[in-house]
Amino acid sequence: MGFRIAPWLTTSFGFSPYSSIGYNINMDSPVEGTNLKFLKTFSGQGGVNQVYLGSSIKLLKNLSVGINAAYLFGNITRTESSTAFTYYLEDATYISNFNLNYGLHYQFNMKQWKYSLGLIYGNSKNLKTKNVTTIKTENETEILKNRKYKYSIPQNIGAGIALSKGYFSAGVDYEWSKWKDVEFTIPIFRPGIATDTLLVWSSPHRDRTRERQNDILQIWRGVP
After folding, report:
1. Measured in Å, how far apart are the chain's first and last C-alpha atoms?
2. What values do phi and psi take at 42, rounded to 5?
3. Phi and psi dihedrals of 35, rounded to 5?
4. Is residue 205 in a domain?
5. pLDDT at 203
6. Is residue 214 a part of any domain in this protein?
């Protein structure tokens, strides 16, 4: 929602998604030392939203500058599970912080055409995070890890141009983000360590369900 406060000042505010994640993957995993396989499911969901407030100031007749202040918040949850071995591993990351970005807009007329030029800039920003890893079995729920990860938004620069005449309008824009300088940690379930080791310690037979659950907890407690 936006409105004009003065002839030289406009503002806007609102709520919108900033990013999202969603996937569900099923795969067959082998039981070591046997020809048996079991179904393992990986899934991810969640995202980051933003509440923003923006203002634009008209400096000259055709030149305006703007700033957007946003509060980012949300969570990303990744899970690994298997009905065969009755475990559910959940890794949830909660993200929040404030973010600022800036813009410059210039427009002019030429031979009955109206041209608009725009520039945007956003500095790199570290995000506040909290990560919780939980393992659930039929008989027990335990928090394995409670820590902080490093996430940040990359520096970005963008430019665009638009032209219009009567009912016709067209435009093009380009945005560049400096991802190579971003420092972040991605939580990994390490199925090669946890789940595969689980299968070495446990038997696939149903009469050892409780023993398998204890093996799962012991293995995940030992993952660094």
Report:
1. 47
2. -115, 135
3. -95, 10
4. no
5. 31
6. no
Instruction: Name the nearest CA neighbour of 54 among 93, 103, 110.
Output: 103
The single-letter code of the amino acid at 153 is I
Contact criterion met (CB below 8 Å) for 44 and 21: yes
Structural domain including 95 reads: 10-187
Which residues, other chains included, contact 61 with Cβ-Cβ below 8 Å and sequence gap of 6+? none
What pLDDT is stored for residue 172 in this prediction?
Answer: 94
pLDDT digits (tens, 9 = 90+) for 175-221: 998 877 766 555 444 433 333 333 333 333 333 333 444 443 443 43
Decide if 120 contacts 163 (C-beta within 8 A): no
Tokens of 13: 């505010």
Using one digit for the tens of pLDDT, what is the confidence trace for 107-165? 999 888 999 999 999 888 888 888 898 888 888 888 888 888 777 888 889 999 999 98
Pick the closest to residue 138 from 188, 88, 95 (CA basis).
88
Contact 128, 150 (CB under 8 A): no
| Domain count along the chain | 1
Asked, for residue 38, whether it belongs to a domain, the answer is yes
Q: Per the domain annotation, does 220 fall within a domain?
A: no
